[in-house]
Design goal:
Elements lengths: L21 H6 L8 E6 L2 E6 L13 E4 L2 E4 H8 L3
Antiparallel strand pairs: 1-2, 3-4
Bound molecules: zinc ion (ZN).
Length: 83
């Protein structure tokens, strides 16, 4: 079971923005202009630090970008072997 920290209440402004508390940004090493991943889960919104992953297998290792999607070395080799 995930351990939940104390809730932090933030207001959404007229453009739909919220401010992430400095303590959380520092703890997770989230820097200015870094990408954040928003996941809608039932009635919750989960924010995660964005980590690029392979579009086919989800691996975060040995990635190259092709047509704006990441592909790992293993999947790239598997695709190559089809031809
Ligand atoms: Zn892959």
């Amino acid at each position: 079971m995930r351990k939940e920290k104390e809730a932090s209440i933030r207001a959404i402004d007229e453009l739909g923005r919220i401010v992430l508390p400095t303590e959380i940004r520092q703890k997770l090493d989230i820097r200015t202009n870094e990408k954040i991943c928003l996941i809608e889960r039932d009635d919750e919104i989960v924010l995660k630090k964005y980590k690029p992953s392979c579009a086919f297998c989800g691996s975060e290792e040995s990635l190259v970008m092709y047509n704006k999607k990441y592909v790992c070395k293993d999947c790239s080799q598997s695709i190559n072997s089809l031809f």
